[in-house]
UniProtKB/TrEMBL annotation:
PROSITE patterns, sorted: SHSP
Membership in a protein family: Belongs to the small heat shock protein (HSP20) family.
Stored InterPro entries: A-crystallin/Hsp20_dom (IPR002068), Small_HSP (IPR031107)
Chain segments annotated as coiled-coil in the UniProt record: none
Positions of the SHSP domain: 25-137
Organism: Pseudonocardia abyssalis
Name recorded for this polypeptide: Hsp20/alpha crystallin family protein
Length: 146
């Protein structure tokens, strides 16, 4: 038998039960931890989704809002199974990101490995620095940085 010595874990369990209709299943979406950074000409976002099957992940983009929704389902089932400790949250997790106009939402690349969902969003061509040619009345054309 597994013993628990932390008195606050029981309080956490009772609080979780107050928010659930089925034991071990959240009734409200829960945020998922993420990292976001720019890597050269792309924006990278990584979401931690341990224990989530790839087919249980949904990605939607509407206008400039990216929605990530995932469901962690119970893995332990059976007629004679009696759960002793259930600390890993189950159910639906979701997160919304507001993407700037400088990102190309038409070409998002998504990969899932080792419980981490990685999105790579290219920087839009219109947002990249470019040179503009300026006509000079003296010698034709001259290039300057814009």
């Amino acid at each position: 038998m597994l013993m628990r010595t932390d008195p606050f874990r029981e309080l956490d369990r009772l609080t979780q039960q107050a928010f659930t209709t089925n034991p071990g299943t959240w009734t409200r979406p829960t945020a998922m931890p993420m990292d976001a950074y720019r890597d050269g000409e792309q924006f990278v976002v990584c979401f931690d989704l341990p224990g989530v099957e790839p087919e249980a992940i949904e990605l939607d983009v509407e206008r400039n809002v990216l929605t990530v929704k995932a469901e962690r389902r119970p893995r332990i089932t059976g007629e004679h199974v009696e759960m002793q400790v259930a600390e890993r949250p189950l159910g639906v997790f979701s997160r919304q990101l507001f993407l700037g106009d400088t990102l190309d939402v038409e070409h998002i690349d998504a990969g899932y490995e080792a419980g981490v969902l990685t999105l790579r969003i290219p920087i839009a061509e219109r947002a990249k620095p470019r040179r503009i040619s300026i006509r000079n009345s003296d010698d034709g054309h001259r290039k300057i940085d814009a």
